[in-house]
Amino acid sequence: MVSWKNLDTLAVYDKFLALKGTVDLVKEMTGENGAARVAKYTVPMACGLNYNFAAKEVDDNVLAVLKELAEEAQLTEKYEELYNGAVINTGEKRLVLHQLCRGQLGKDVMADGVNKREFYVSQQKKAADFANAVHAGEITNAAGEPFTTVVQIGIGGSDLGPRAIYIALENWAKQNDALKMEARFISNVDPDDAAAVLKSVDIPHSLFIVVSKSGTTLETLTNESFVREALKNAGVDPAQHMLAVTSETSPLASSTDYRAAFFMDDYIGGRYSSSSCVGAVVLSLAFGPDIFARIMDGAAAADELAKNPDPMQNAAMMDALIGVYERNVQGYLCTAVLPYSQALARFPAHLQQLDMESNGKSVNRFGEPVNYVTGPVIFGEPGTNGQHSFYQLLHQGTNIVPLQFVGFKQNQAGMDVDIQGSTSQQKLCANVVAQIMAFACGKDDEDPNKYFAGGRPSSLITGEQLNPESLGALLAHFENKIMFQGFLWNVNSFDQEGVQLGKLLAKRVLAHETDGALKAFSDLLEI
Amino acid sequence: MVSWKNLDTLAVYDKFLALKGTVDLVKEMTGENGAARVAKYTVPMACGLNYNFAAKEVDDNVLAVLKELAEEAQLTEKYEELYNGAVINTGEKRLVLHQLCRGQLGKDVMADGVNKREFYVSQQKKAADFANAVHAGEITNAAGEPFTTVVQIGIGGSDLGPRAIYIALENWAKQNDALKMEARFISNVDPDDAAAVLKSVDIPHSLFIVVSKSGTTLETLTNESFVREALKNAGVDPAQHMLAVTSETSPLASSTDYRAAFFMDDYIGGRYSSSSCVGAVVLSLAFGPDIFARIMDGAAAADELAKNPDPMQNAAMMDALIGVYERNVQGYLCTAVLPYSQALARFPAHLQQLDMESNGKSVNRFGEPVNYVTGPVIFGEPGTNGQHSFYQLLHQGTNIVPLQFVGFKQNQAGMDVDIQGSTSQQKLCANVVAQIMAFACGKDDEDPNKYFAGGRPSSLITGEQLNPESLGALLAHFENKIMFQGFLWNVNSFDQEGVQLGKLLAKRVLAHETDGALKAFSDLLEI
Predict the structure, then answer these.
(1) CA angle (B295 as vertex; B293, B297 as ends), nearest 5
(2) Contact A192 B342 (CB under 8 A)
């Protein structure tokens, strides 16, 4: 029987807090002990990835307490409840089933009178069949010409995840003759966003996917209207060029305004929806259904590994435990995500939503205030770019920011150049390992301006190459890490009540039902 | 006579610290007092912009102390020293002259035997003449055909600022028939970055600008070689397609490998170099020299306003003071930059470098450790996108993150759509003001999950439209804010010793001169 308790009510909590400052990272990572840590503090992940936490502020004592914490917090049992269909999203009283899109982890999950795994597979198949028909030239525009571009119209989870994945695999796909259609994304209600995207595409040969679970998202409906106008002006029938990804109960579901509709449900939150039709339709059109299936296979393999109750065999759980230790014991607010891969340029933006929207909460899953800090601030840019930007503060600033590095042995595009005895890929990899050590060990110097205190913790995920499988595994790793952290903090990681108030006030502004400061600010912008 | 003192040695310091928690933002912003604050707490900026800080945790008492702090810290006098050519960059013993690229703020500044304003103007003119000749078809490729694309090869300050500016004005330029050439950027040493950009451009009709002050930046030289190979493979002579932006003493300066060379000097740091030839060449080619000059005019106007000793008339100074108050008195670590303008999509990334590399320091300008926190962590994404991503944590997370909003009355592309009684631009603006009030005042609710504590401070910069002048003013505002904050913290905002250690260790890895953990990590990635 699972027991949902606040972190500070667990028996291990005092022992957990007592870990503060017990590990001297500079000392641990210097000399041969450092090499031993690199060999020892590593967890195999799915699809050839590895999670190395040698440069985190841990030792065997810390790890023993973290393991005890994992057990007392029943992380494995809670995950089991989740994938077997319990109402984990307590606020909205919903099941949480994004993993079920990728594979059957436990019992059959029945809801709304259907087997949900069958439902998700059927929708993926519908997306696959549609994409195959487009690629085969069976589904065309009115002139019988093929569609060459797909444009996703969505915001938040309907945008960030699918966009990050598309960017991550675009050049891999070009290199592997798997780019079937170019993809573009319209998200912002700023009309300049849609205008710029529409100018960059060949409208008569473009398909547009309107993505809104409720069918009522203001930004998305507004951008849909914007696009419909542009299609009409271009002399094409919007109904032939527009698709819908929505819930079966939304106004979009049975509308004749769309050439096809693909369904999601209430059990998959926006930020976890890349595995649903929100990702399946656009990514199957862009790369082909087989590539989308390979992403899902990578994610499913990571989901399986996340079942292991031993953190040393479960990278998502270990990452989660160390993150909570850094947040609640060491007192760090931020985490920087630093992939040494240009293809992962927008992956930090996706993780920023995934993490901050899931665990940026002040109440527990029962709606009671918690007495400890919860989710961190997440930011990041790809390396080596970030080194020439904000790393100065990370190295020598007055606050410690834990770091999450990612690196791959091989690049994607298969082009490289050997300069001064090394390839660009080798330089890229050399930089990531150099940074880890610079952050961990620092450097003494007579000139205090050139002194590095070190003691700045980081972890490193390594892989052979960023491809559909490893990307899927990486995506699921972070989703599962965040899920475990939500369990530890005892928050509901699957709702987002914090976004509602702004929406409500914006409606009032547009209806001119304002007074006081809200009216005064509205006047400033002449709304 | 200017006196450089640590913040905690100023007479006003205790009074400053005593401000903690004295302002109840919810109370201040509720009702008619809120409207009065919006009218009162505003500072005019250059080019029609305004800085409104009504929703910051200030009142007349706080402002009086901040003004006293500005005076005792001699912010105006220090700025005067800077623009008159003092050695403000103490670490590297250099003048700090980026503002001089935009206008003559004080005395003539002589260095290296020349009048530096004349030098900067001469280089801008050289860039303008070159760009005009390219646009007129006088400078062409070997086949006599016009160049249509310009590709900047640079990293850090040679990339982020010019790229953010290009993206900010690309659609404005299209709308105003001012887009002369498309611009692309290659920065990352990851070979997939250059490979992707090269695939996207028409090489025989592209100019490539190699940007490196020292002529030794690893990433840039590597990418230059990568591009040279591609040019040769495309059958074109690299010397006809490549330009250099560098210092007069660099190996690139007189090389015949470049069709033309444009010069910068040691008095302009990378992150401040958009106003130098680092920005002038690529932006003059992309938009024409007149547009670049208009950006500079906007920046120059902001630089002039920054001379005013009264924070109520000096937005950069007020912004700086409030930021230091939030950091050192209120204890907030992060600041989120949230432009409600898709065109400013990469402006937060530029500000992230500008701020974190300038003020992420632990020693003062004399190399002595400071006893207080310095520069904040900066991150951000454009609104409304961010609302559907990380705002959950900003509204209901356990830590307060101060916010910097930016909004414009008009969009750039001149296309809009009226849905449910309002345009997209109105919806965009309604959202930004709604967010400010939601953050400031929060909302009571019986359900704690729907409760918003409020008390989360933000400021708002408003403008008519994002155009070359207002963009220049915005850029200079933040540069000058960061400069004033550096003065307050008594740090050197113009060096970046924190980036050196990683470079050193990366060289060792590539030379295989490693042991211990560094070797073990290198083995993980098979370097």
Answers:
(1) 70
(2) yes
CB pairs under 8 A between A and B: 515
- B211: which strand partners? B245
Task: Give the pLDDT confidence score for residue B217 in this predicted structure.
Answer: 87
Q: Which of A390, A399, A521 sits opposite B353 (nearest CB)?
A: A390
Q: Could you say which of B258, B279, B296 is where a domain stops?
A: B296
Kindly state whether residue A247 falls inside one of the protein's structural domains: yes
Beta partners for residue A246, in sequence order: A263
pTM score: 0.98
Measured CA to CA, the distance from residue B289 to residue B272 in angstroms comes to 19
Whole-number pLDDT of residue B414: 86
Q: Are B339 and B383 in contact (CB under 8 A)?
A: yes
- Quick one: pLDDT at residue B79? 98
Assess whether pLDDT exceeds 90 at residue B1.
no
Read off the tokens for B300: 């120059």
Residues B384/B338, Cβ–Cβ less than 8 Å: no
ipTM over 0.90: yes
At residue B244's C-alpha, the angle toward residues B247 and B103, to 5°, is 55
Task: Please provide residue B262's backbone torsions phi and psi, each rounded to the nearest 5 degrees.
Answer: -125, 145
Q: Which of B296, B324, B350 is the last residue of a domain?
A: B296
Q: Do A195 and B171 touch (CB under 8 A)?
A: yes
Q: What is the phi/psi pair of residue B296, to 5°?
A: -65, -40
What's the confidence (pLDDT) of residue B480?
A: 98
Half-sphere exposure of B264 (CA within 13 A, CB side): 31
CATH number at residue B143: 3.40.50.10490
B309 falls in which pLDDT band (50, 70, 90)? Answer: very high
Helix (H, G, I), strand (E, B) or coil at B208: strand
Q: Which residue range is the domain that position A278 belongs to? A: 108-294
CA distance A303 to chain B (A): 24
Q: Which two tokens stand for residue A239?
A: 């109904």
Is it the case that residue A1 has pLDDT exceeding 90?
no
Answer whether A155 sits within 8 Å of B447, measured CB to CB. Answer: no
Cβ burial of B178 (10 Å; 0-12, 13-18, 19+) is middle
> How confident is the model at residue A515, as a pLDDT?
95
What b/e readout covers B264-287, taking b as 16+ CB neighbours within 10 angstroms?
Answer: bbbbbbbbbbbbbbbbbbbbbbbb
Torsion of CA B241, B244, B250, B255, to 10 degrees: 30
